[in-house]
Write a structure and sequence with these properties.
Elements: E1 2-6, E2 9-11, E3 17-19, E4 23-27, E5 34-36, E6 40-41, E7 45-50, E8 54-60, E9 65-71, E10 74-79, E11 85-90, E12 95-100
Parallel strand pairs: 6-12
Antiparallel strand pairs: 1-4, 2-3, 5-7, 7-10, 8-9, 8-11, 11-12
Amino acid sequence: MAIIITGYSKTDLDGKHSYSSIQKLQFTSGGKSFSLLNNVINNAVLQVEVKAPGSLYLYSNDGKLVWQKQFNTGLQNIDLAVPKGIYFLKGKDAVEKILVQ
């Protein structure tokens, strides 16, 4: 998040000064298109909050694509019937590490 406080002064041709009011501008980043609610999986269910509809890709630790699925926005409970190990969940703007135990 960035906060910018701004104002200005001006001088007319006749030398008269005037000042603007001070304004506070606040910017927040768009954020990631998804976030994990759990990245350590013990019960084979991965919970993902999808913030923008789109595809998610699950990759194994050696870079192989395990699956690709389309999701709408909202909380998604994803069944991860995969062997134990480290995986990576990739969306359009983020990658998250997952440990399946």
